[in-house]
Specification:
This protein is mainly beta. 7% of the residues lie in helices and 49% in strands. The chain folds into two domains: 30 residues; 238 residues, no CATH class.
Length: 270
């Protein structure tokens, strides 16, 4: 979410503008997030459960399984293995909720990348009282699994928007600073980022990467963290709806003005 400072205007039109800006900011802050989880350290030959989740970590009752494009595991030798997820309805620590999961086999030494991609869809803030600006929303999520003794420094999942880390996520400790860069189509970009600890998404750290895409996040405590990068790009086009909603029907061509990319990386801080 970008922070916007608005001076008070003592007119009716000024008040309307302020209210619209507040609505836009609220919509960005309340957007659901996509992320994946699995044990980040394993031995060669291990099998473990991988999870894909969508919603707000602090509100499990609002989590659900959206229409997904793909789930995959990128192995150390660069192959992408498609994953067939099942849907679950109960998860310890969250309770009754909806999520996706499957077993994964880690047969190679080195760093594996667990990833999920949500099927794109068009959203217009005008549907919730904001200014009309139809945008295609694209969500990506990844987590790194270290297997055996062999490590890597390349944790690129092949997403258009990538959170590139300077240091192995499984080596991070409480009080460390997580540094890296946000890249769009391989090039550094000034983007928004949000970082939160486990279910404390309402107290997230928020900021912008610099012109070189660089960011610096304080990992204040041990446990699970989610880092989310986002950017909006002027890429007008038409999306063929893959499902029906209150605003369009499946098969309908829906125009959009921009593309909103979001990408998360999940890590466990020691």
């Amino acid at each position: 979410m970008s922070v916007i400072i608005v001076s008070v205007i003592n007119t009716k039109s000024g008040l309307i503008v302020c209210l619209l800006l507040i609505v836009a900011m609220t919509m960005n802050a309340s957007s659901h997030s996509l992320w994946v989880e699995s044990r980040d350290m394993a031995k060669v030959g291990d099998s473990q459960v991988a999870y894909s989740l969508f919603g707000h970590p602090s509100s499990s009752t609002g989590m659900y399984v959206p229409l997904m494009e793909s789930y995959f595991l990128k192995t150390p030798d660069g192959k992408k293995l498609d994953l067939k997820m099942e849907n679950g309805t109960w998860l310890p620590g969250f309770g009754w909720m909806n999520y996706s999961y499957c077993d994964i086999a880690l047969d190679q030494p080195g760093d594996h990348i667990l990833a999920s991609i949500r099927a794109p869809g068009v959203y217009d803030p005008a549907w919730h009282g904001g200014e009309s600006s139809p945008q295609l929303v694209c969500d990506y999520a990844k987590a790194i699994i270290h297997c055996g003794d062999k490590s890597s420094s390349d944790w690129d999942a092949g997403f258009p928007l990538e959170v590139v880390l300077d240091k192995a996520p499984y080596e991070m400790k409480a009080k460390d600073n997580l540094t890296g860069a946000i890249k769009f189509e391989g090039k550094p970009i000034k983007a928004n980022y949000t970082a939160w600890y486990w279910t404390e998404d309402s107290n997230a750290q928020k900021g912008n990467s610099n012109e070189n895409g660089e960011f610096d996040i304080a990992l204040t405590k041990s446990g699970p963290w989610i880092i989310e990068a986002s950017c909006t790009v002027d890429q007008p086009g038409n999306w063929t709806a893959t499902y029906s909603s209150a605003h369009y029907n499946a098969g309908e061509s829906v125009p959009y003005q921009k593309v909103w990319y979001r990408s998360t990386v999940t890590l466990w801080v020691r």
